[in-house]
Amino acid sequence: MNKYYVYEYLREDGSPYYVGKGSGFRAYCKRPYRPKDKSRIKIIKDNLTEEEAFNLEINLIEQYGRQDLGTGILKNKTIGGEGYSLSEETKQKLSVAGKGRAPWNKGLNSDTDKRVKKNAESRSKVQYSEETKQAFRKPKSEEGRKNMSAGQIGKKYPKKPCVCCGKEIPTNAMASHMRIHNQ
């Protein structure tokens, strides 16, 4: 399926600082390097197979070079493609090193740690009225459903092709449409 694309995150001067491969909304999701200004996210090429996207990503990272290696301008930490994975030997060493180590939060409670105490206090102070609680619940009555439906009349949502069937679906209905494919 040709559902993949390659994207770049751009500096204010227009030069790229990160290259990635994705599908769906990946380029726009909260990521460590994502720019706040979405106009600085550039889709280089879309409608690619995963292999084509991997190859283009690898080529672009090689072309621009990586900061961590001192070869270029990108913040990428891998060569791209499927990246890298730890060797079995390294995994084994990490496993042995972690055995017997206590979790970071072992023994912490509101009496011994200020952070835990502050968090517990803030949660206990929040009191919601029944009216507020009801506002968060979905209307269960037929009248409530009709009111919600009437509120949607006349609204126009942008359409996007479904990655599975190619059918044009309004963006507000994409999640329910995808459930059809996942059944």
Characterise the protein shown here.
- The chain is of the alpha+beta class and 183 residues long.
- Among the domains are: 4-64, no CATH class; 155-183, no CATH class.
- Helix content is 36%, strand content 16%.
- It contains 6 helices and 5 strands, in the order βββαααααββα.
- The two termini are 19 Å apart.
- The mean pLDDT is 83.
Quick rundown:
The chain has helices at residues 50-64, 88-98, 114-125, 130-136, 142-152, 174-182; strands spanning 4-10, 16-23, 41-48, 159-161, 168-170. It is α+β, with helices and mostly antiparallel strands.
Record keyword descriptors for this entry:
three-stranded antiparallel β-sheet; extended; 183 residues; 6 helices; alpha+beta
What is the arithmetic mean of pLDDT?
A: 83
| N- to C-terminal distance | 19 Å
The spatial strand order of the largest sheet comes to: 2-1-3
Give the CA-based shape: extended
Please work out how many helical segments DSSP would assign.
Answer: 6
List the helices and strands and how they pair.
Blueprint: E1 4-10, E2 16-23, E3 41-48, H1 50-64, H2 88-98, H3 114-125, H4 130-136, H5 142-152, E4 159-161, E5 168-170, H6 174-182
Antiparallel strand pairs: 1-2, 1-3, 4-5
